[in-house]
Amino acid sequence: MSKIRRKLAVFLVVVFLMVTFVPSVFASMPAVEGYIDIAGHWAEEAINKWSEKGIIYGYNGRFNPDSDITRAEFCAIINRIFGFTEKSSTNFDDVKPDKWYADDVAIAKKAGYIAGYGNNLFGPEDRIIRQDAARILFTVFQFDVADGLVYGHFEDNSEISSYAKEAVAVLTQKGYIFGYQNYFKPKDNLTRAQLIAILDRIVAELYNKPGTYSGIETEKNIIVSSDEVILENMVIEGNLYLAEGIGEGSVTLNNVTVKDNTFVNGGGENSVIIKDSNLGRLAVRKPDGKIRIVASGSTKVSHVRLNSGAILKADNIKTGFDTVEVLEIPEGQNLVIEGDFEDILVTASNASIIISGGTVNNLTISEEAFGAGIQIAQGALVRTLDINAAVNVEGQGKIVTANINAGNVTISQKPYVINIADGIEANIGGKKVDKSTVSESSKGGTTPGTPKQEWTLVWADEFDGDTVDTSKWELVDMGGGFGNQESQYYSPDNVTVEDGKLVITARKEKHPNATYEEYTSAKLVSKFAKKYGRIEARIKLPLGTGLWPAFWMMPQDSVYGGWAASGEIDIMEARGRVPDVVCGTLHYGGPWPHNVHTGKDYVFPEGQTINEFHTYAIEWEPGEIRWYVDGVHYQTQTSWYTMGSEYEETYAFPAPFDQEFYMQLNLAIGGTFDGMQLPPDELFEDPDNPVTMEVDYVRVYELTGRPYKTPEGAVVPVEPLPDNARTPDATGNLVYDVNFEKGIKDNQEGIDDEFGDYWNYVHNAQFGGEADVTVEEIDGNNYAKIDVKNKGSQPYSIQLEQLTTLGIGRWYRFSFDAKADKIRTLNTKLGGGPTRGWTAYSGSYTVDLTDEFQHFEFEFQMIHETDVLTRIEFNCATDTGPVWIGNVRLEEIDGPTVDYNAPKEPLSSGNHVYNGAFDKYSIDRMACWNVEVTGANADIYVPEDTRELTVKIKDGGASADTIVVYQQGIQLLNDYGYKLSFDARAAGDRTIKVAFTDIEGNVYVPASEISLTSGMKTYELEFKMEAETDYNSRLVFMLGGDSADVYIDNVELITTTFHVDPSVDLFPLKNGDFSDTSGEPWATYAVEGGVADFSFENGEARISTTVLGNNPWSIMLAQHGMKFSKGVEYQVEFDARANVPRDIEVILENA
What we know:
The protein folds into 6 domains: 3-201, no CATH class; 206-441, no CATH class; 456-703, Jelly Rolls, CATH 2.60.120; 744-893, Sandwich (Jelly Rolls), CATH 2.60.120.260; 930-1055, Jelly Rolls (Sandwich); 1059-1151, no CATH class. The protein is 6% helix and 39% strand. The protein has 7 helices and 68 strands. α1 (44-52) packs across α6. The longest helix has 12 residues, at 71-82.
């Protein structure tokens, strides 16, 4: 451990350089350029440098470099370097007030780096000796003493006085002072040149004038002794001194790294600003305690030591202060803490500490800190308060856990959890408590909410009226399962407002408008929507199997496509049968079945349940969503994506969570969230204990205390695999028994503990599926043959499964061969079991089978927590009849690399331009587009709000080609016709040019001049590709030659030449005349309340409906696996009749 010497040796006199001059003019003599007596002197360069800084003076054109300096002269130099100005109220007896050095000696005495000879004598005109100079330099520069410091470098070490031995050793080890042929000569006088040389070796730069200084990398130390100084882009291996000469002014550090110590002795309430910097240790000792230190951006400070009052602020900081140690706070001074801090340790007695806002995770009061006063202001939060001395804690702020290990402790507020050591009595919330009396009072209730000093309330419902405020909420009046096979009908009759609370009541009853639903409940949808902010509600949830209460959000406009492409935010969901757990989840990815979800459970402390009021909240910022329960932050998500409805181009992060979402409160019954379980009837039989979800309030806040965060892109970190993770075989395969030599185990209910290492046949009884499962050899390879006799009620009624391991952040390739005895589909996925909510880790893949083996291959990233019980699932009950599955492989692979300039196949829409809407792929939304600016000046970017290419032109240059935006990798086929279209406008009337070239710039289509106006219009350009086919051509926009800004959007290039490949099936729908009375390949569905019989006879499909169900798709005739080809126009036609007038719905979809 290194240590800082803080106490001054009483032996010190004063040491350092001054020139021989007329003493009466010493204090005001200006620096002299070109001393006539230093030319060729070994210290010439250093003398000139420090003379120019105004630190040393000569006289009458001479410097006298080899003259000795006095102790008073040395004080004057030290004072100038550090900017010391405050004088001691008393001086030494031998320092006469009329002497030129009287003030400098008084200043040195106040600064604490001299003590005199004793008997209040200083000897100001004595020559300073080398050991005294070493001791003073060691003290005033506060050098660390490293472990293993070697003493006795010199032959005359015994002659060095004890008070100077450590100083001489440290300065010698650092290379600041040297000896004479292995002798130090401690009693020799120090010359002016020697002092300057030592000073120059210690200090790389002294900034004693206002200004901006940058680009320094040094192993030495740097001193700042002036206000209005900015240091930027520096690396300092030694110490940084923010000296008293700064006064009450300001200093800014911007991208500065200090490897050793940063000493703060100057600066005022105008602040020391530390931006995006990395400081090893920060020591604060401001004499009057009036200093404000603000850390922001990516700043990291490993350790802070405070020996005076200060304001210490963490301003929207990413890493911040690791540890703050409070060593001394003089009487009359305060330490004020603002922002979020990890650990604060108080060892100072009688210290006054104010936590004015933010969150302190751990505040420890040590045994030495008796008499301290801690004020936690309203809006501030201390998560853990460890008290080991008699202290007083007060204020309106919140404390989650207080651990009290000392007597005479007073805490005016009541912490949520109180732990008191044996034999200790404390005053908590105005009451005396001890270990026995506090145990019950500290359980239950609600923990404090997250501090809201940064958040401003913008919308709320406190439910203070007699009825639901329908200007704020829409009451849902419908059933239908809501895509989750829920069993309730939502009725406005099940909502009341009582005693300042919203009450949703679930009942075992059938609503008059219900079809199959046997329960009623309620759901409220807010008419208010918000993009980003803090959303919270205080809610009490019911207990009981089959209950599914939720507080969640959905997009106001599904701009990215159907669920879940446009996202879903679950602030809180709970399973009534699990009383101590709630869930926070995001849904995203693509439209079902390509949706994924990620989330985390919050487990309540022992003794708490969901059946008490708790505050559930999210803090939603661009690229980051944080979940809280009772102010406890338990989850942060920063990685998600959406592929949109097309499931082809990924939208730019943070889509889909960059749109307005509305809120929902509901209490569902049954459904997929908890495995289709329904409540027992007795849950509803006690009229005195109805099944209710109670909401105290719902509040929405805007972030006003700081800007919202700037998103940084979605990254899922790779974590080490646990010891019990499955290891791949010699071929890298994470699937065992690929050849089915171990057979297929009948594991009907799919119990984790019964899987073993190999293949399992899972056919859960509740779904009613039946199949014959065997192993069949075909062409020398074994295949699993699953012959479905009864497909049951779900596609997963019949499953072939094996357990494996998927690790978070890792990429995998999953592949297999499969066939059937006809055209049909097979569904497969890799996902979690019941403990993971059946989450699909890989997404869900539906493949089209024929009667020939095909190879299928998918790549995906595991974005969920590592699961050593991952299920490889083949869901075979999409149809009846046999399927064969084999050669299954799962292998870890490197993540994909993206070359946005590579040749690109046209998109399924026919568009040859990728990211033509400037809203895809990269966070700057400029992916696939390149920029070249030569001889001009322009800023080219895509704003988040407009999502159009924006070209802000400062200097348009001489011609159109000085500002170029182009896309490479465009496919142009010989003799094909094309049409380019795009939307564009300009700040004023002007022209731009558009061309198609090869990568060398050779033109395929001559540049077309387009006249723009201030209104956004669509422009079109048609051409024929006369040159040879080029799969890597460029579309070029030339935007220079004019100073008017340009805006471009919705760029599209399509072919106007119709060509159908011979392999295209022009009639993809089969058995459309129903001549095959088996109905193949048509599929029939009666789901979600629908009841019907299907038959195929007389060239017709006949659907006899008994119960319609709640949705158009409750009764459905469908054909899957049709292959459509881009560029081909299809027409759907059919004949239909009914025995009564009615409507039907016909849909073509890619799900």
